Amino acid sequence: MTVGERIGKEHLTYGQGASAELVAMVTIGAADAYGLPASTTHVLSLGMAGTIAANGSGFEWGTGRSVVLTWVLTLPASIALAGSPYWVFRLLF
């Protein structure tokens, strides 16, 4: 089971999947054009959530909270994971 399958209470229709992919493509393309960082996984998950909300097919709030929490924690966790070994190596060498 994927995150996409757990975001909604029903399976995505072909139209919902195509809409989510199209929005992800445009968003990632715009981020690239402006030199901004973007996560394809985060963008596509949000696109799927948007189609589920628009279709009224039952958004799973528990999964939504987990996805948002992951988005919020990604930056500080990445900083800590990259910064810790850097400071250790800097002190040793």
TrEMBL record:
Listed Pfam families: PHO4
Protein name listed in UniProt: Phosphate transporter
The organism's place on the tree of life at top rank: Bacteria
Major localization listed first in the record, in broad terms: membrane
PANTHER family: PHOSPHATE TRANSPORTER (PTHR11101:SF61)
Keywords of the record: Membrane, Transmembrane, Transmembrane helix, Transport
A GO CC term assigned to this protein in UniProt: membrane
InterPro entries: Phos_transporter (IPR001204)
